[in-house]
């Protein structure tokens, strides 16, 4: 008996497409609720009734006519599939699972980093985007090699592996994989076009138009997608302000008790700029950062840097991650780098860094170049960070990274 039920999602959700395409092959009867009033994403999925069925509140989520409820797109797609899609042998089923897992672990992170800024969903970061492009090239090369002697990913018929990987690559092919970029991967292109032109795919995706010109970051769309601040209240006249002040004086609000965390924060000394004592420098870091973010690095940004750099007011450092043997998956290492930058946000005005991940999964290293205000390592200037440092014979060290001495005679000194 074919599966039947309701799929909750939002419009054009590529994750939901996996289950819907699988249902086209298996004959599962799926009713889709994706728009108000039946389903309002961000509201309906937060109601007690929805959370009782799907505790994580995520979509897509599937509710069978028999009351069976399941969330996570891969699990739903597997549930509504038939044996042919899941793999008719134990070996084939394992290979299908292999590619489904590969799509989530290897394709989704770089695809999101590259595509989301072009849709206005996420802020653009040049370094992260360039790294994502290289990861996409690696993935396409891997798939191209695999498909060189194969029509589909597993066996000679479409399986859930093909459905999942096609859906995961969907926005790449729609937004950024312009003809010159995708041209080297002929086998992947042939396979992708073959899949999306199957009746079962077209029933869900429609006539898909491949990218003609690589989409770029849309700052206007990104700004529009940000939550709007509450409109400011109408300005009061001086008389109204005096009346309000008198009312406040008559009825003082009772002081709220601070919890332990708030008490600790209140007890902290006010932040003082540790670089305030340094003489003014002619080198303006913000100007360089703008050129680095928005213009060609080699032709514009770096020449600007060397032309204006003040070696007396700033110093350059080279850093390496001290424990490369602990680095496993490359996307996890990228998250490690991103997390570090988030924790060092107070250094934004007085520092610049270009940190790169080199290598592949389970064989990688992290190193980078840092530019700091002054001639000393900047981290100890911040009490919140100083505990992470120790002094050794080789100089200051951050837990996790080793720094080499700074600029000398126009060059970085050797480690």
TrEMBL record:
EF-1 is composed of four subunits: alpha, beta, delta, and gamma. The keyword Zinc-finger does not apply. Residues 391-402 have a biased composition (Polar residues). Residues 222-253 have a biased composition (Basic and acidic residues). It comes from Laticauda laticaudata. Residues 271-415 form the EF-1-gamma C-terminal domain. GO terms for cellular component: cytoplasm; nucleus. Residues 89-217 form the GST C-terminal domain. Probably plays a role in anchoring the complex to other cellular components. GO terms for molecular function: translation elongation factor activity. InterPro entries: EF-GSTs, EF1B_G_C, EF1B_G_C_sf, Glutathione-S-Trfase_C-like, Glutathione-S-Trfase_C_sf, Glutathione_S-Trfase, Glutathione_S-Trfase_N, GST_C. Residues 3-88 form the GST N-terminal domain. The keyword Ribonucleoprotein does not apply. Gene3D superfamilies: 1.20.1050.10, Glutaredoxin, Translation elongation factor EF1B, gamma chain, conserved domain. Keywords: Elongation factor, Protein biosynthesis. Residues 222-261, 391-415 are annotated as: Disordered. This is Elongation factor 1-gamma.
